[in-house]
From TrEMBL:
PANTHER family: INNER MEMBRANE PROTEIN YEDE (PTHR30574), SULPHUR TRANSPORT DOMAIN-CONTAINING PROTEIN (PTHR30574:SF1). Belongs to the TsuA/YedE (TC 9.B.102) family. It comes from Hoeflea algicola. This is YeeE/YedE family protein. Keywords: Cell inner membrane, Cell membrane, Membrane, Transmembrane, Transmembrane helix, Transport. It is found in: Cell inner membrane. The chain crosses the membrane at residues 6-28, 49-69, 75-97, 118-139.
Amino acid sequence: METEFTPWLSLAGGVLIGLSATLLMAMNGRIAGMTGILTGIIPPFSTDWAWRIAFLVGAIVAPVIYLFAGGEIAYAVPVSLPLLILGGLIVGVGVYYGAGCTSGHGVCGMARLSPRSIAATATFMIATAVTVYVVRHIAEI
C-alpha cells in the first residue's frame, strides 16, 4: 500500500488540532480528548454536554465542508471488516485502561508535560510502528 506524502495539509491539520485544543482549554478549562468528550454525551449526561456536542459536530462537519470546497480525502482500509471491528474493540479497551486516547494524551497531555501522557504516547507510537511493520512487511491480511 502506497502512502501519499502531504506535508502542507498535514501541517494545516496539526495547526487546527492544536488551535482547537488550546481554545478549548483556554475558554472552558477542558482537555480536547475525543474519548472524554464523547463519553460526556452518553447518558447519564454531564452538565456541560452542549460544548461537547458542538465539538463533535465540528469534527464531523469540517471534513464535509472540505470535500464540498473541492478537497479530496484519500484513505484505504487494508483489512477486512471483521478485523476492523476487532481493532476498534481493542482500541476501546486500550482507551479505557489507558485513561484516555491519543488526542487526550498525545496532544493535550504532552503539551502539559504530563508524565503519564508522555508514557502513554510513547506506547502508542511504539505499538503503531510495530503494527505498520507487521501489516506491511510480515502479515498477509
